[in-house]
Amino acid sequence: MLVVIRGAGDIATGIALRLYRAGMQIVMCDLAQPTSIRRTVCFSEAIRLGETTIEGVRGVLCKDAEVARLAAQSACVAVMADPEASCVSDLHPDVVVDAILAKRNLGTTRGMAPVVIGVGPGFTAQVDVDAAVETMRGHYLGRVYYTGSPLPNTAIPGLIGGYAGERVLRAPADGTFTPCVEIGDEVKAGTVCGTVAGQPMVATIDGVVRGLLQEGVSVTRGMKSGDVDPRCHPEYITMASDKALAVGGGVLEAILNLTAFLGTHDAAPAIDAVIEAADVSIVGGYA
């Protein structure tokens, strides 16, 4: 089964890992200059570096759809600089997943593939996608909506280690981003983690730098440019997050359900017929 994923950031990468490990072939599409924060766990890094390995899974940059198809068939995650996912018309995938996380639909339609899944707010199942998956931390995280939409964007980051908005590093001005620390570094509140147009981007809490834009990215004032994890576990920077894997599990469920990969759920009538033929009743799980 061939799946094209729009986006190759941390959530999209968690989705890709889940699907890849379930035996699916994966092609991912992102910007020519990705703006992923958690770069150490993002297949988008293949666009910048040529290839990257996440949790033992190799992602490789592919120049066109045919090379991407071959890479996906060769047990790699294929990555393309193709923000419009124009490769879909050449690849004819079984599934398209929109995991751009733009909080709105940037052009994904139900006609792009036999199964189309939207991730996060901005999608409505049975309108512009066949199913949508919840991305908000909490009780509904990873839940699949076969009708309706995920919860609306609150613009408030989820709690990690007791901190929400405080852990996010935002660009202090418009301009070009220059990092002053590296992902995995331990920082204190007040540490300058980067600069934009000569203005400092300062950590507000102690912790480990979990994510940071690469040097040279164009940013706008207030744009998310880094993330400090107060839990202080440097090993987390090499692992997909609980959120990414939960969302990936929801996407996997939706694909298996909508492609009838696991067969139908019409077993109940057959079981009733067997019971009737055997002239037995089942009570509490025992005959």
List keywords for this structure.
single chain; 287 residues; alpha/beta; nine-stranded mixed sheet; 17 strands
Please explain how this structure is put together.
The mean pLDDT is 90. The protein has a nine-stranded mixed sheet, sandwiched between helices. The protein has a four-stranded antiparallel sheet with strand order 10-17-15-12, with no helix packed on it. A four-stranded antiparallel sheet has the order 14-13-11-16, with no helix packed on it. The protein contains six helices and 17 strands. β3 and β4 form a beta hairpin. Helix content is 21%, strand content 25%. It is an alpha/beta fold. The chain has helices at residues 10-21, 45-49, 65-73, 88-91, 242-258, 267-278; strands at 2-6, 25-30, 51-54, 57-61, 77-81, 95-98, 115-119, 131-133, 144-145, 168-170, 175-179, 186-187, 192-196, 199-202, 207-212, 218-219, 224-229.
Describe the global form. Answer: globular
Q: List unreliable stretches of 5+ residues.
A: none
Please tally the β strands and state the result.
17
SSE string, helices as H and strands as E: EHEHEEHEHEEEEEEEEEEEEHH
Fraction of residues in H or I helices: 10-25%
Counting H and I runs of at least 4 residues, what is the number of helices?
Answer: 6
How confident is the prediction overall: mean pLDDT? 90
Structural class given helices, strands, pairing? alpha/beta
Termini distance? Answer: 40 Å
- The Rg value, from CA coordinates, equals 21 Å
Q: Going across the major beta sheet, what is the strand order?
A: 3-4-5-2-1-6-7-8-9
Percentage of residues in strands: 25-35%
Largest sheet: 9 strands, mixed
